[in-house]
Amino acid sequence: MDLDLFEPNNTAVGEGSQEEIHLIVSFASLLSGRGLSDCQNAEDPSCTSGVATLAAWSRQYAYEYNASATIIAPRFDYSHPFTQQHPLGWDVNRLVFQELLGWKLFLARLWFLESDDSGRNVEGLQSKELPLLISNAIASPADPWSRYVQQIHFDEESSVALMHISEDASTVELSAGILSTCKNLLDYIHRVNQQSGCISNTSPYDSYVNRTYNTSTDSRCWIPVILSDLTVYRETLLDELLTHEHPPALFVDYNGIEVTLNSGEPVKLTNGDSSMWALSYRSGSRLFPLIRLTKENGKPAFNNVMYEPQDLRDFPESAKDASYASDIGQLRVWADAASANDPVVGQSTEFPEAKTSDRLFVRCEAGECEHGNLFTDAMRWATDADFAFENGGAYNGPGWPAGDVRVSLLWETIPFANNVCEGYMSGLNLWKLTNHSVSAGTFSFANTAEGGNVIQVSGLRVTYNTLLDPAIGRLVDLKIWNATQDAFVPIERLKIYKFATNSYNCCCNDPFNEMLTTNLNIPGEVPGYDLPYLEQQATADYLSNLNETYVARLEGRLFNDTANFSNLDLSQSEDDCSQGVQYWSPSYQTCFDCPNIDNIVMIRESSDALVGVSGQMDEVLFRTTFINEEDFGLSLNIESIPAFLSCSSQNGLTPELVRFCGGTDPYIVPAGGQLNLELAANFGALQPGVVKAVVIVDVSDGGDFPGCRGSGMHVDVELQVLPTEALNQLGNIRIVGFCLAGFILCGAVGFGLWCLINRQKHSVKLMQPLFLVTLCCGIFVMGSALIPMSLDDEIVSKESASTACMAGTWLLSLGFSISFAALYAKLKRVNTIVTNAVNFRRIKVRERDVLGPMALLVVSNFIVLMTWSFVDPLRFERDSVIGQPWNTYGLCRTNDTEGVVLMSLLLFINFIALATASWEAYKARNVSKELSEASRIGMAIFSWAQIALIGFPVLFLLDPTNTVINYFMRLCIVFFSSMSLLLWIFVPLVWKNENAGGMSASTRTPAIAQSQRRNDSTIMSLSNSGRTNHKAYTMTGMRNVDGDLEEKEESSRLNSSIFPNTSNR
User: Fold this and answer.
1) Which of 430, 464, 556, 800 is packed most tightly, with the most Cβ within 10 A?
2) Which phi and psi angles does 894 have, rounded to 5°?
């Protein structure tokens, strides 16, 4: 940023510890008095206000308070007749500020830099001795003002670095560059203070640069002060400046817009170690705003700030020094020059007297007047407005004859320096303004306070009836000029019209000022704002551009129709809106027809009936989505909902949904938005059956069109209330299962222990203890399966029940395979020996020779079970009876194909084992009764086959929903299978052992030898005759099978007698 900062000359002054300086921001007019003829000399009582008065009073205060310096920042004056008529025009400001009073700068708003575009010559104001201070504006090099605009004014006498931020009067938002400009300038001032040594450097780089390149010996501390000419309150402005790294020492809002500050009371704002003073007040042409600043020694800050405002009209005689008299005398000379410079701006017919000097006759407050027509026509022409108006009390003077119209006549008619004010208002507020005017005005030539309410208009035809009651309203008709139709047409209530009036009405004339500013809230309306254009100048320009004589006449712009008693009433209230058909718009103050608000879509997650169990408090969710397809928000409200339905809190309820579900507040669905509503059905108090209910959701406006209602949404809900859930659990019958399991386990353990105790007994040895113990182990494992089979979700969790499903399968399968492997091994050994005996072959079958098939069966089962457990194990699940969802039963099932295949493979393996064992038992059916264990094993196997052939089809045919019968059937299959095997094998064995007297094998050898000899004789005789008896061979074969039960010598003898010719083989 290329800133023209007008660098200081580094001459320090005023270093006292309690040094006081004065700051005055002046709005005083150039001349004292109202017009050019006022203030003829210093003693003239009409010398009120003015810059000469302000300068004299500031000198007196400087002397009284011993101020070391006074900074006066005057506002550029363009509105006084003096600047309008003086030959120098606006340039006369420099003549007064610099040449007469010796001031060092002046202030203006941003529009001033564009004044050249309006055709005005302001070259006389361009001076480096009197620069224009605007900190947030930089003129381009091609701009004539580029060398005469300051961003910072370094005041040598006071050490104040003064900045000034401004904006256009019509600006609504803060320019993006204002804040950044302020911060950049504050940083620059801080750098200057660093270079002067006032502030210590914070970085080695800064210290090096200052030591190397700064040759100044001045230790002055420049104190940053910001003057604000902003016209709209900025909420963050003070915060942004205060939190800046280098805040200003003082911020002065001389437009009084900072609402966070008390008007006229300096406040010290702090932020940590940073602080700044802030002052807000409303400036004016008659205000003497003295700001007293006490400098803090050696720092760019103020110890104290005081604000002492005075009214310039209270200027004391003691302040009228010689300089004041001299200044008034010089101003008088220049005022006379302005009076002599009275150019002709146009021609007109005769204008009558507007107001007598005694103010007893006021023509323009009685109705339409010629002066009002001229000035309102001029303002309407200058702003291209739809209509213009002005209060009737503004017009003064005796009028003027037909002929030339001079500038002085315009100022004599309106002796007030009022700018043109423009804005935009609706037909409704135009009606309010004109209705107030005709209802509150007296329409009398007498000068009264109420008479000032009568307005003069241009572009309007206002018809009223003074016989109507003012409280009701006297306005009966209101029309506005339509250039397209070339006629006056009735105003439209919500149409926006551009208006023009004077600045007094926009700012100060109550109640018109509120009607033109704060009350303009209808969309499209713009509050009135001042233009840099005096209404006298606008009228002069209007007459100059007419190119014809202006005819002063009455045109019926204000017409009193005493025959029309029908007052015009454009007001509406919310009570006037038809319920449900129209809605009230507060912003437009109007009833509008409701739009179609039925365009909302309801999507249900499922149309199926909700199913629940009677008497249970569990909630069943019902989800519905409402989608707003309108381009405005809609309000949904639950108008009716059954008691058994409520909003679900499963996914959390926002406070809005809580109030919506409670029926206290509606739920607003924005345009394009949606409401996901989850309703929970409580079946606790419902009786079994089908319940149909309707949730009525009222659809209305969501705030844009209050009072408008749609047709509503009907959410049909159907509930199928089931009887209390029947779980069909095992209940107490599981005790039978546990008892049977205990019986089997006790039997298996008991017989196993008996075998171990009696393992040396002949009968036990004959049956092989290893075989018997293995058989008991298998039965023990298989019987253990009844325990997990007796578990369901009544006493364990569903996960534990699933584990029990697979555990039962493991126990049954492994128990079966172990038992059957032992049976098969025993039968296979018997049949092998018998077969070889028949063929006269000597063979010895050892135990390990038959362990292979046994191991194969067990390992096959183990592999299949392990694979099944990992791939797709059985799981405990509940199924419902078809058509009876409340009636459920638990079962173990596999869900995937892999599980079914593995289960089928396991059944197939064990079926093959059963079939093979049955075949071996069939083959051993003719074994000698003396060694009848083979037949007993066969009977056990055939018992298993019978149980399987009968039990499994019956189990398959049973109703799976009858869990008790199914469970009992499975108990019976396992129990009878296990016990049949134990009983067939062990009961005869125990009985035989007990009847044999418990003789061991050694004590029974002679008897066995005798029996052997008988059998040997039989065998030999049969052999010689060529005939054999299979039963006779059986005993010998079995002795070979059980050769380990006898001593080796006995076995050898027996084998030799059976096979006499094989002793040498």
Assistant:
1) 464
2) -110, 135
